[in-house]
Amino acid sequence: GTARHDREMAIQAKRNLSKTTDPVERLRLQCLARGSAGIKGLSRVFRIMDDDNSRTLDFKEFVKGLNDYAMMIDKEEAQEIFRIFDKDGSGTIDFDEFLVTLRPPMSNARKEIIMQAFRKLDKTGDGVITIEDLRGVYNAKHHPKYQNGDWTEDQVFRAFLDNFDSPYDKDGKVTTEEFMNYYAGVSASIDTDVYFIVMMKNAWKL
C-alpha cells in the first residue's frame, strides 16, 4: 500500500504548500511532494556536496544543495531556514540535526510502535540492527532472489537493511535514528494513528 500512500501524501503536500508561510514547513512539503523518500533524497544531495566529510554544510553548500535538488526557494527564505538550523551560530549546519528537524512530526503513539518494531528487530539490544540481529526475526528464504539462487541469505538481509540505512552512509547497521527517519516518511502519508499502528503491527507481527 505504500505506493498509494506516497501518491496521496504527495498530492496533500502540494496542496498544503500554497497555504503555508513557514519556511521549514515549505521545505518539508517540497520534499514530501516527492514521496516518503523525498527527505532522504535531499540528504543524499547534501552528502555528495560535503566534500570534506565533515557532516556539516555552510550556507553556500546549503543553497547549492537546494538548487541541485530543484527546490523552489529564494535566497531570503534559504537564509531564514539556515539560521533556524544553525542553532549555535557557527555558520554551518549539522546534517543529522537538519534531517531530524525536517522529519514530519509524529505522535507519541506512532513513535512508540516504531520503537517496538525496532526493539523486536534489535535482538542483541545494543541499539543497532545488524545482519546478526535479523537472523532470528526476518525470514530470508521467502525472498524471490534467495529462492532463485541469485542471493545468499546475508545478501537478502543486507538489502533489507539498506532500505532503512542512511542513504549516504550504508554500513549495514541501522540505528534508531535511521529507523525513525524512514518511518517518519511513511507516517506522513498515513492520516490516522490507528491505521499506522495496524500497519506496523501487521508488518512486524507485533
UniProtKB/TrEMBL annotation:
GO MF terms, alphabetically ordered: calcium ion binding
Record bears the keyword Plastid: no
Superkingdom classification of source: Eukaryota
Protein name as catalogued: Calcyphosin-like
Keyword Magnesium assigned: no
EF-hand domain sequence ranges: 37-72, 73-108, 109-144
SMART domains linked: EFh (SM00054)
Pfam families with a match to the protein in the record: EF-hand_7
InterPro entries listed in its UniProt record: Ca-bind, EF-hand-dom_pair, EF_Hand_1_Ca_BS, EF_hand_dom
Record's keyword terms, sorted: Calcium, Metal-binding, Repeat
